[in-house]
Amino acid sequence: MNAEADALTTVKDADRKHVFHSWSAQELIDPLAVAGAEGSYFWDYQGNRYLDFSSALVYTNIGYQHPKVTAAIQEQAAKLCTVAPGFAVDVRSEAARLIAERTPGDLDKIFFTNAGAEAVENAVRMARLHTGRPKVLSAYRSYHGATSTAINLTGDARRFGNDSATAGVVHFWGPFAYRSPFYSTTEAEECERALRHLEDTIVFEGPQSIAAIILETVGGAPGVLVHPDGYLAGVRALCDRYGIVFVLDEIMVGFGRIGRWFASEHWDVTPDLICFAKGVTSGYVPLGGVAVSAAIAETFARRPYPGGLTYSGHVLACAAAIATINVMEEEGVVEQSARTGAELLGPGLRALAERHPSVGEVRGLGTFWALELVRSKETREPLVPYNAAGADNAPMAEFGAACKKGGLWPLIAGNRIHIAPACNIAPQDVAKGLQILDEALTVADAHTV
Length: 449
Hints:
The strands form 4 sheets. This protein has a 7-stranded mixed sheet with strand order 4-12-11-10-7-5-6, with helices on both faces. The protein has a 4-stranded mixed sheet with strand order 1-2-3-15. It has a 4-stranded antiparallel sheet with strand order 13-14-17-16. The chain has helices at residues 3-18, 55-58, 67-79, 90-102, 116-131, 148-153, 187-205, 231-242, 294-299, 315-330, 333-355, 394-405, 427-445, and strands at 34-38, 41-44, 49-52, 109-113, 135-139, 169-172, 210-216, 218-219, 225-226, 245-249, 273-276, 288-292, 359-365, 368-373, 408-409, 411-413, 416-419. Helices cover 39% and strands 16% of the residues. The chain is built from 13 helices and 17 strands.
């Protein structure tokens, strides 16, 4: 065997013996062994290159191995690898300043976590302590993380095996015009009826018991759900009316993903708390956090906040955040993401929808899109059932395999493919990815009626 084959065998054997993978039946998976990555591509030990249309898990916003960020991490490691979170340290303060400068309104305090789920956990804790109320409202068709509170807030099927029914969470239906739970015929109707439903939920749950409403600014894992104009502003107004903390989960969509530093800018809405992670470091070192409004920060000005993390504001992660934000600023990555969506991905994906009977809807912004795959455009029946597995999921499995065969790594969820390349993806790579999708969709077309 050659060196590459030896390395592949070693990696695969060790993975099988010792790595316990998330969201998986351990004996039924065969993970691809990745040998390296750069820019918008990664490759395996056999030399197969994949154009990554998933940005890993929607976090390599500036692509893999950006030299300025890797150099910043190396430089920080040589200077100071770690220090306890109770100290003031230059990179932690600078990372917080750069993030706070980009948040809307007066969200000027940054509580650092290691990842997004911990950001959600702490945002909910802050809201409950600030209001003295126990309940939190979150949407069906949502994902907020895999820790205890976050998974209970989640509104998709991953909650089922973890739902304790004791988390103080109430779910409601958010707007989704393509599969409207409100029998709406227009986006305006969907917005109006969704807000009425949410207010009814607040009233019947008792406003005096509700600490927070948490929403993904753009629904990520549930299908790149872009809220209709007016919805987030309407939720903000309801929160103000009933004294409820408004939390926006920007873990997937912050830091350029939809062509804004924070997605809430797109609708000119300022929440009380913003949860972030992923793109803040392009995933190079894990980092998350909560951006905190002045009113909530004041609650803990003389009252200790009862929460913390050993690695809060880890200096290597903060160095990565500083470098990532500076790269995005210097190279115009946020603006590039907006242009890519408006000029390349949006038009290209809509053209695919016209050619392929399996594409029921195209939706998205910036470098965050989804194709809703259906058996029939007329009935809108999903290509596979909700939470499908095994034989029921065969059409999507075949479609995913066709993407990979063509050299495209897809992000598939349910009956959808999510298109989330690096925010700085080159135009020629967008064109290449669309061509591979065009060919792969013929596999999905074979399952239409």
